[in-house]
Amino acid sequence: MAKTATPALLEEVAAYYAEKLRQHGQTPQGVDWNSAAGQWLRFHQLAKLFDGNQHFSVNDLGSGYGAFYDFISQHYPHAAYIGIDICEAMTEAAQQRHAGQTQARFICADSPDQTADYAVTSGIFNVRFGRTDSEWQAYLETTLDSLDRSSSRGFAFNCLTRYADADKMKANLYYADPCQLFDLCKRKYSRNVALLHDYDLYEFTLLVRKS
């Protein structure tokens, strides 16, 4: 699979999340989320991509310590899962956490090593590490290309929203334009795209279903 970002950016991201894991352990805060409730709510939005299917495979890009697999194994026990993360400490934590789970595999990489039915990513577009809007948008779009290539039935991702309250927005975070990304996905990847912006968080989820 093609690279999703420059080596310098990937190293910065890996170091950031390794430190979060060191500080907070295998918790939502360890992958830079505020709460377990918010994390679980995001997973429910991403899972709408599966349309109630029970037998499928999924690539999870930026899988962290494997929290989405906890969700998958509970709600879709027949699904095959591959977690991909650029942070070696996160990958090792995920492998230890899910040791003996034969339907889950975790690798340290910047892109999936095989195609699955679906591909998802959650939270990896939020912290932009001082990059400009244009630089971060380019990284985001390159990553969407990777999600597209590594899925046969569709992919899903989330972003912080440009419609967040101005007094709560932070300079180190990236707030995407949901309308622009909806248009991009419709024009570039599929005519079947759903924008979810109604689940009471300062973010949105896009589901791209392939014909």
Automatic annotation (TrEMBL):
InterPro entries: Methyltransf_25, SAM-dependent_MTases_sf. One of its GO terms (molecular function) is methyltransferase activity. It comes from the Bacteria. Residues 59-121 form the Methyltransferase domain. The keyword Methyltransferase applies. Keywords: Methyltransferase, Transferase. One of its GO terms (biological process) is methylation. This is SAM-dependent methyltransferase.
